[in-house]
């Protein structure tokens, strides 16, 4: 069983047909669905045949109920804490070369508390995937640390994704380095920009470090694994697909290099359609 803890939010993806014109109509392809790094990771893990569980907090509203139902349809075991706060949302603007600009309202997600967690949610968990988003602010950060402790007591692995350059800078790179030293992740995922923002040797912070290089592929412990050439349509969620595929293969006994080769193939497939989830 793979578990993640964190955001389940409404994802609005906008792919303009051409350059945006201010104060005017702009034709675009617009899709609405589920998002959030923890939720996307679980969706990809489930699509690869892994039992996947998400612990999250959502609004007790139409959006929250719809998002939970959609994720369950994809095979994810969702353990949702229902809240009077509204369900969060992310607007993703996709540029002409696939770059993404995101506007985020986390809503209910960040309010998950340690007291919300139930011990049986962690039975049989072999790995917990933690987006750094889930460590940036309390009470979610306290709940996430409690979840990590329960998984570790059961012998499970810890994977951390650095998630966001802006989030790392706001939280404080030095503070995140200290958090990583304390948590001692088995696996760590980062983009090149996130690794630069952390400004610390990744190899000293986790047993296995995977750096995502976008269309070029990824490097694992300094060794480059190239990605297949594909026609990129939307890179939203590709990093989550890569992390889920790596974790799945690694848990099944693959070496880091073997897991990375599998991961870049899955991620390459992810960028060939619009949206953050498997289709």
Helices and strands in order:
Layout: E1 2-5, E2 9-16, E3 28-35, H1 37-47, E4 52-59, H2 62-73, E5 76-83, E6 87-94, E7 100-107, E8 127-131, H3 140-153, E9 157-161, H4 165-171, H5 173-183, E10 187-191, H6 192-198, E11 208-212, E12 217-220, E13 223-226, H7 238-251, H8 256-270
Helix pairs in contact: 1-7, 7-8
Q: What can you tell me about this protein's structure?
A:
- This protein has 279 residues and is an alpha/beta fold.
- It has a single domain, classed as UDP-N-acetylmuramoyl-L-alanine:D-glutamate ligase, CATH 3.40.1190.
- The protein has eight helices and 13 strands.
- The strands form two sheets. It has a nine-stranded mixed sheet, with helices on both faces. It has a four-stranded mixed sheet with strand order 3-2-6-7.
- Helix 1 crosses helix 7 and helix 7 runs antiparallel to helix 8 (256-270).
- The longest helix has 15 residues, at 256-270.
- It is globular and about 55 Å long.
- The model has no long low-confidence stretch (mean pLDDT 91).
Keywords summarizing the entry:
279 residues, alpha/beta, UDP-N-acetylmuramoyl-L-alanine:D-glutamate ligase, four-stranded mixed β-sheet
CATH superfamily annotation: Ribokinase
Helix content: 25-40%
% residues in beta strands: 25-35%
CATH architecture tag = 3-Layer(aba) Sandwich
The strand line-up of the biggest sheet is 5-4-1-8-9-10-11-12-13
Q: Which fold name corresponds to the CATH topology? A: UDP-N-acetylmuramoyl-L-alanine:D-glutamate ligase
Gyration radius (Cα, Å) is 18 Å
Mean pLDDT: 91
Structural class computed from helices and strand pairing: alpha/beta
Name the quaternary structure: single chain
Characterize the biggest β-sheet.
9 strands, mixed
Q: Give the tally of β-strands.
A: 13
Q: What number of structural domains do the residues give? A: 1
Give me the number of helical elements: 8
């Amino acid at each position: 069983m793979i578990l993640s803890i964190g955001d389940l939010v409404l994802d609005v993806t906008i792919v303009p047909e051409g350059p945006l014109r201010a104060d005017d109509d702009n034709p675009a392809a617009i899709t609405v669905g589920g998002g959030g790094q923890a939720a996307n990771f679980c969706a990809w893990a489930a699509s690869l045949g892994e039992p996947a569980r998400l612990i999250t907090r959502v609004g007790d509203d139409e959006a929250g109920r719809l998002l939970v139902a959609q994720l369950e349809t994809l095979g994810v075991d969702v353990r949702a804490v229902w809240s009077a706060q509204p369900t969060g949302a992310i607007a993703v603007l996709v540029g002409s070369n696939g770059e993404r600009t995101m506007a985020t309202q986390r809503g209910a997600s960040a309010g998950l508390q340690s007291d919300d967690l139930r011990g049986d949610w962690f039975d049989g968990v072999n790995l917990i995937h933690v987006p750094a988003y889930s460590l940036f602010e309390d009470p979610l950060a306290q709940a996430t640390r409690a979840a990590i402790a329960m998984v570790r007591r059961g012998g499970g692995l810890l994977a951390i994704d650095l998630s966001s350059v802006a989030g790392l800078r706001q939280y404080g790179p030095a503070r995140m380095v200290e958090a990583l030293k304390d948590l001692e992740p088995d696996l760590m995922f980062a983009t090149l920009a996130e690794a630069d923002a952390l400004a610390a040797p990744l190899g000293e912070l986790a047993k296995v470090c995977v750096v995502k290089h976008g269309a070029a592929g990824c490097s694992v412990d300094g060794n480059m694994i190239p990605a297949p050439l594909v026609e990129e349509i939307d890179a939203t969620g590709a990093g989550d697909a890569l992390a889920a595929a790596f974790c799945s293969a690694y848990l099944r006994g693959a070496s880091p290099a073997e897991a990375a080769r599998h991961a870049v193939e899955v991620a390459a497939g992810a960028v060939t359609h619009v949206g953050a989830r498997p289709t």
